[in-house]
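[scheduler] slot 2 assigned
[scheduler] job type: sequence-to-structure, two independent chains
[scheduler] chain ordering preserved from manifest
[runner] begin chain α
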Amino acid sequence: MGHASLKAIALVARQHNIGASTVMTSTAEEKAFLRVAVAAIPRVAEIILAFPPDDRAGALETAERRFLAAALDYGCTEITAQSSVSAVMRRLRSRLERQQASEKKLQALLQRLTEPG
């Protein structure tokens, strides 16, 4: 897995952490993290899909660690962070599955269109 891509995952997962208040309640912290994390899912999915298929599991693990670090940076408790990251990762995996299925359908269509007669 490329070092630059790992940095990109980390950056996307933490991109809006500047200015996060340390006096938020647990619910506010979780909501703030979830808002940013959910907004980052499309870009993180794009980054992961750029990896060769054999490296995507490692990229997903890296994304999960980065999301967890971001949740903790937002001030979420360990339990809240784990729960929130689990929800984010479910959404990320679902998005990846949908995108991969779409890519396969597109490839099959292109193959049929380019086949002779």
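[runner] end chain α
[runner] begin chain β
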Amino acid sequence: MPTVVLCSDEFGPLGRAEARALGFGGLALVASPHPLAGNSSDLVKAKAGFLASEVHRALTSPAATVAQENRERFSQLTHRRLEAGAVCLDEACVVDLSGVGQRS
């Protein structure tokens, strides 16, 4: 089923990390330029037009094309630490240490 996640570009890396962790690495993430609040009506209209166009393209393009285009989007800040159980936002990471120090 064609699906698109809308988010602020500030949360793109977290969205990509969550999508990969859940097995949806090619999920289409359409990001609105941050900030969302305090925008003039002209800027809101411009952002809405961009979002509508990107959502339409993601929902009507072949699934393989959408997955390929999105697989690496927003992954630069998160990719290297995902295997270690970390979720990264910018340069800060949250690491799941629940399994550290447990005896087998």
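[runner] end chain β
[qc] chain β: The chain is about 35% helix and 15% strand.
[scheduler] slot 2 released
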